[in-house]
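User: Could you walk me through two proteins back to back? I'd like the raw sequence and the C-alpha cells for each, with a short line separating them so I can tell where one ends and the next begins.

Assistant: Of course. Protein one, sequence then structure:
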Amino acid sequence: MTEMLPSPASPLKIGTRGSPLALAQAYETRARLAAAHDLPEDAFEIVVIKTTGDNMTLINADKPLKEIGGKGLFTKEIEEAMLSGGIDIAVHSMKDMPVEQPGGLVLDCYLPREDVRDAFVSPHVARLADLPKGAVVGTSSLRRRAQLLNYRPDLNVVEFRGNVQTRLKKLDDGVALATFLAMAGLNRLGRTEVVQSAIAPEEMLPAVAQGAIGIERRGDDSRVAAMLEAIHHVETGQRLAAERAFLAALDGSCETPIAGLAELDGGTLRLRGQILRPDGSESLADEVTCLIADGPEAGRMLALDLRARAGAGFFDW
C-alpha cells in the first residue's frame, strides 16, 4: 500500500466544520493517521467546510435545532464535498450524526471514546442539586432539557445554542445560571477548569454516541478504507453499534429526547436506554445485557419495548 499513501504533494483531505472542537477532532484524526502510517502531518490537509447549520444557527440562535432543520444541516455540505471528491474523509462528533448516511458514504471508523458524561457548568453553583428554585438553565439539547425538567420541574430551561465558547460567554453574560456541556468536548479543548461537576450516567444518561468521534468515507474508496482500519477502535464501534441501533429503532432525529449508553465487560455488553416526554413529565428507562455480537439486535429490541410502553403521542410537543 506504500505507493498509495498520501504525501505533502498529494495530501489526503480531511473535511470538518470550523468550530474549535471540530478542528480539535480533525487534528486528533490527522495525528492518529500520521502515526499509524509513519507519515508527516502535512501529508494530510484539513479542509474547513461551512455548513447550512452553521449559518442558520447564527441567524436562529434562540430556536431549537428541530425548528431549523435538524442534525443533517451540519453534515450536508461536508458529505456533498466527499461525494464530489473535494475531500477524502470527514470527521464528526457521533452524537450529532443522523443514524443513516447518504448513498455512497460509509461510517465505520471510530476513535477511542472519550468521557461519556455530561458536565455541569456554572460560574456560581457547584452542583445541579444546588440550583435555586426557578433558576434559568440554558441548553439546546432536547434530551438534557427533558431530563432536567423530569428531575427539577421548577427550573426554567431556555434555548442555548452555539459552540462551547459561545455558551460559556452566555453564562458569563448572565443569560443563564448554568448549562451542560459534554465532558468529552471540554477534555479535547483543554477547558475542564469550567466544570463544576461531572454527572454520572446514573443521574443523567448521556446522548447516544456521546464522546465518540466517527470518520466517514466514500464506500468505494479502498485506499482510505485500509488507512482508516489502522486507527479504528473496535470496542467503541461495538458500543456504538448497539446504541445507534437503539436510536434508529426509536426515531434517530433530533426531535425526540433519547438517551443511551452501552458498556463492555469482557464478552458482555450492557445497554441502558431512556426516553422522555419533551416536557419532562414522564421518563421510561430500561436496560439489557447480552453478548457483544448481539448488541445491535438488543438495542433494537430495547427500543421497541420502550416504544410499546410509551404508547402513541409520547414524543408529541
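----
Protein two, same layout:
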Amino acid sequence: MPRNEGTLDRALRIIAGLVLLSLVFVGPQTMWGLIGIVPLATGLLGYCPLYQVVGLNTCPMKKG
C-alpha cells in the first residue's frame, strides 16, 4: 500500500480518531465512538482506501 496521506492529514485523522474513541469511555459513553477506529487506523498507516478510489493524494512525492 503506497502512502497517500500527507503529514497534516495523518495528524488530523489520528486526533479525530482518538477523540471519537474517547466517547466510548467518557461523555455519552456510546458505542458509536468505535467509528474512531477508522480514522485512527488510516492515520497511523498513512493510506486511505477512499483516497485511492477517488484519486486523491495529499502525500508529497519525492521526484527524481
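The CA atoms of residues 20 and 35 lie 7 Å apart.

Let me know if you want the two compared in more detail.
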